[in-house]
Amino acid sequence: MTTQLDYNPGRRNPYVDLIKDQKFALISALPLDSGPVLEKVEIAYKTWGVLNEKRDNAIVICHALSGSSDISDWWEPLLRPGKTFDYTRYFVFCGNLLGSPYGSASPLTTNPKTGEPYGPEFPETSIRDDVRAHKLVLDALGVQTVAAVIGGSMGGMAALEWPLCTPPGYVNTIIPIATSADHSAWGISWAETQKQCIYADANYQDGYYDISHPPTAGLAAARMIAMLTYRSCVSFDRRFGRKFNPKKNAPKATTNGAGGNPEKLVNGDKPANDEEPMNCVGQDPKCDAFRSAKRARVEATIGAAESVHRARSPMFSAQGYLNYQGEKFIKRFDANCYINLTNKMDSHDVTDGRLDHEREPTGEDFKEVLKAAPPRALVVSVNTDALFEPDQQVRLAEYLPDATLATLDSPDGHDGFLLAFEELDKIITERLRERCPWVYEGPPLLEVNRNGSTAVKDSVFGEVESEW
Ligand SMILES: CC(=O)SCCNC(=O)CCNC(=O)[C@H](O)C(C)(C)COP(=O)(O)OP(=O)(O)OC[C@H]1O[C@@H](n2cnc3c(N)ncnc32)[C@H](O)[C@@H]1OP(=O)(O)O
Ligand SMILES: N[C@@H](CCO)C(=O)O
């Protein structure tokens, strides 16, 4: 198995171009938990900062379901000198998940056996597969050991798997956020409702859709449902209340299935494909009966179209928001990738295949498996999280050796881990300083110039992101 850095993936799907300045590695072959060996595996990733002499200052950040390797897209306030992910001291790494549309091997990348995109034939991948793939990239980059692994939601699942899939001592500490030791029936079920939306879209075609005619209606509906699990009742009530929908961002209503286009049917004009009313066959088209029958039919068509228009136009601000989130998502995500990634989340269970019995794992079983994780993990919870309920992090903190639990006070539900920057910065930095003291010793490895760019100081390795 070889890992080539500075790989040029050539033909890329359009979503990859949304992520700026990504790097790519090529892994020759990756055996997957699901059975097949994935060949010529592209891994997209980003790094900030440089490795120190001992090559032990790497910090691995794991993104969530719809995120990418570009931390500055979702945790930017934490990725600054002096903040949590201080790239003047840490070598910050974020790898894109297998199955994601943003550059790593996925349903959108080319199957080397056929020369065509994998589509729905892209194999199931696990959180553990991601960890193994990203570890190979870190090895190629020269990382000796990892100071900390941090991630929220699906990224938190990865944070838990990192020490379990790598040699003892390789990972110094972990900070799993808004996540669980195994994905709950609740989480699996919410994802199922979203997948069913995609399956129900006529464009889906069992996943063999033309990329220029994707199942956007299904994917948008899936995202709208997901958004409700990511936020909270209290945040929706506070934000939208019973306010009416502002015109800004309101998606255009469609009239699919209404049998008419309201813009063309004005003041009783004839529809383009007009036919004679049945009761006027053989009559003079200029006769009154013919005309009134026509007018009645056209008015009925207009009425139907307008009523569909009214029914589908978001009336309330909350509806407008959800519709907009759906519209925004289909511009940046692919349906097969969504299914692959949600299946991956569903499969998450740290005890899977690690116990010597088949029965339902108990708390003791979770403890047995997670004792391989480094001590003093920090587990972070969001008090209003309705998807990964706080009780799951309470249990996780009990399972992990000598771990502590911190709870974010945020009205934003599960997405609180992407929005409560100030609190996150404080609690994570505090734990990193305690668990990775060597990273904070001595002067920083990079100098930040006035214009925000960085320059390397003496005796360090790695690459510097010029944008900084
Ligand atoms: C290419 C890429 O994007 S890569 C990946 C980026 N995404 C990730 O990393 C995944 C994780 N990130 C996320 O899930 C989200 O981006 C979050 C949680 C960080 C933030 O969510 P957001 O949708 O940006 O925030 P929020 O819920 O406040 O919604 C704001 C948007 O809704 C719009 N909006 C707000 N209220 C309404 C309303 N009543 N009607 C219509 N639109 C509304 C706003 O105008 C704003 O639009 P904009 O995104 O075009 O600026
Ligand atoms: N808003 C996040 C939530 C998933 O944890 C995302 O879209 O990835």
UniProtKB/TrEMBL annotation:
Coiled coil: none annotated. Residues 57-418 form the AB hydrolase-1 domain. One of its GO terms (biological process) is methionine biosynthetic process. Gene3D superfamilies: alpha/beta hydrolase. InterPro entries: AB_hydrolase_1, AB_hydrolase_fold, HAT_MetX-like. The active site is at 153 (nucleophile), 385, 414. The keyword DNA-binding does not apply. Keywords: Transferase. It comes from the Eukaryota. GO terms for molecular function: homoserine O-acetyltransferase activity. Residues 245-264 are annotated as: Disordered. Belongs to the AB hydrolase superfamily. MetX family. This is AB hydrolase-1 domain-containing protein.
